[in-house]
Amino acid sequence: MKLNSTSALLCAALLAVFAFDVYADFDKPVIKEWTVREKNDKGEEEDVPYMSIDGILVHETDPAIVPQPPVITPGAEPGAPPSDAVVLFNGKDTEGWLAEDGSATKWVVKDGTLQPVKDSGMIKTEREFGSCQMHIEWAAPANVEGEGQGRGNSGVFLMGKYEVQVLDCFNNTTYPDGQAGALYGRAIPQVNACRKPGEWQTYDIVFHRPVFDDKGAVVKRATFTVFHNGVLIQDHVELSGGTLWKSKHAMTDYEAHGDKGPIMLQDHGNPVRFRNIWVREIRD
Ligand code: MG
Q1: Nearest 10 degrees: Cα torsion 183, 185, 190, 195
Q2: Which domains, from first to last, does the chain contain?
Q3: How far is the CA of 167 from the centre of ligand 1 (A)?
């Protein structure tokens, strides 16, 4: 195909816009460099390089310009909530949790663990969260029943929408994008780090919420980093869309929503138990 000069110009302009869009995020920090003539330890003058990132001098020490990060106390044991965490489950009652429709939840607390009962439905936090770091521990039933998606199925839903799959995947095969630690239907975990059914397992999740424009289009996708039993299984994965079931081989797309939403746990008909659930709000 032969391009005339007008279409060639148009193509070049479109390419330029495209390139700008693609690299806009990457180029965001404004880095400036300059030199200052200073005396060194020997009293000799020399050019010393200086650099600022987004207007802040590298190694700035003035707290009015760069405040010190807040001091927090980490949890005493690995996995215990640090001092700035919001503890979502105290091991005693379901305070702060509701049924999906906002009524009282039917989930129960037994031996310090939170678990669904028959037909109790999803459970959600009263408080809502956007971008966050989350810790949760879960155990699939020791009494193994069912197979595939029917064995120890539950899920951790960030903003009530984006599911990190909970499933007993110890000697239990299912579709990879639906196994334990999958971003359901969207992203396969790098490894299967499942412990035996009945044993306690941990998820540590770093979630960045999606951002929508005023027309409802997603302009920044959600991202997930997930550790399963301390093992990295999702490495800053950008979620390509929603994680809700649309049909047997299709997932829902993004649908615009607010900046915060509840954390939900799934009742998939299997008595999966939960404990030690906490969240830290983080910057978008
Ligand atoms: Mg599930």
Answers
A1: 70
A2: 22-67 (no CATH), 86-281 (2.60.120.560)
A3: 7
